[in-house]
Amino acid sequence: MNHVVFFLVPGVHLLDLAGPAQVFSTAADFGHPWTLGYVAERPEVRTAQGLPLVAGLTWPELGPDDLIVVPGWRAAGEATPAIGPGPLRMLREHHARGGTVASVCAGADALGRAGLLDGRRCTTHHDVQDELARRHPRAIVVPDVLFTTDDRVVTSAGIASGIDLALHLVATRHGPAVAAQVAREMVVYARRNGHEPQTSAMLRHRAHLDDTVHRAQNLIDSRFDRALPLAVLASAAGVSERTLTRLFTRATGLTPLRYQQTLRLERAEHLISHGATVDSAARSVGFEDPRMLRRLRARTA
Fold first, then answer.
1. Residue 74 pLDDT exceeds 60
2. Which of 28, 37, 33 is nearest to 8 (CA)?
3. How far is CA 48 from the centre of its chain?
């Protein structure tokens, strides 16, 4: 029986905790030996979302096959919660004994305080990457990836990416088929690799306030793998083709066609990273000629 122990600090984010916990709990439901534990420096920990949690004060005996996870918290900068020397020592000693330590989001700061990020690749949520690098200058902070692994120190971007991190750990321990089984049970769309970006193209180009462009994007997002003439998009948005192109470019920096190609390319790269050929990925995302996908990939290489 393997332990996964979550170390909780005040202000812990519920999804940073619940996502990975659900992964390991589901793996245990399928017969894989994981027991979950929750440890804190006080018996009750209030989450960032206001829900109080009850945790133990005593760490279980941990071996090399066990895992410690530090979920992230809301506070940042000077408001970062204090962590006593005991838990930091536990993180260091567990790793020194051959165990794995992991963090979600701002939890990477706890690993840094324990000295476990020095000289190692790590990541965190894109909002606090610069802060992590400032606090721990010997750490190698990798921007805009979902998770990193370096010598049994595993860090993830935060929030939902904690699920990706946990699925990766399950795949490493029990094989990719088990991780896929867990993801399917959790209704997770797809298991993402660590090097994939934290923000998808759909999110990167949605930070504007133009309702007309959002309406066009809604249609492109749902049908990016099919032909979408500009006239169809303009009709759905309720404007002329010329007006849509002008508004779309001003709001996103891309033409509607380039935005569609960006979505296709991102999805194709995901398929290729999971073993698809370039030709099959091109067909899956709507390119009639795989050479178009090859040209787009070459531009971004």
1. yes
2. 37
3. 19
Final residue in a domain of this structure, among 131, 155, 185 = 185
Question: Which of 195, 196, 144, 193 shows the shortest CA–CA distance to 167?
Answer: 193
- Quick check: 40 and 7 in contact, CB under 8 A? yes
DSSP state for residue 192 in the 8-state scheme: P
User: Where does the pLDDT of residue 75 fall: very low under 50, low under 70, confident under 90, or very high at 90 and above?
Assistant: low
User: Are residue 51 and residue 113 in the same domain, yes or no?
Assistant: yes
CATH number of the CATH domain containing 222: 1.10.10.60
Q: Say yes or no to pLDDT of 79 above 90.
A: no
**pLDDT band of 240, cuts 50, 70, 90:** very high
**Does some domain include residue 248?**
yes
pLDDT in tens, 245-295: 999 999 999 999 999 999 899 888 878 877 889 999 999 999 999 999 999
Residues 13 and 143 in one domain: yes
**Residue where a domain terminates, one of 185, 215, 238:** 185
What CATH number did the domain enclosing 18 receive? 3.40.50.880
b/e string for 42-64 if b means 16 or more Cβ within 10 A? eeebebbeeeebebeeebeebee
The residue among 34, 274, 23 whose CA lies nearest residue 166 is 23
**Contact 153/164 with Cβ under 8 angstroms?**
no
Rounded to the nearest 10°, the torsion over CA 186, 189, 190, 194 is -90
- On the question of pLDDT at 93 being above 90, the answer is yes
Domain of 279 in residue numbering reads as 201-300
Domain assignment of residue 132, yes or no: yes
**Rounded to whole angstroms, how far apart are CA atoms 286 and 223?**
10
Residue 172 has pLDDT above 80, yes or no: yes
Domain count, the chain: 2
Mean pLDDT of the chain: 89
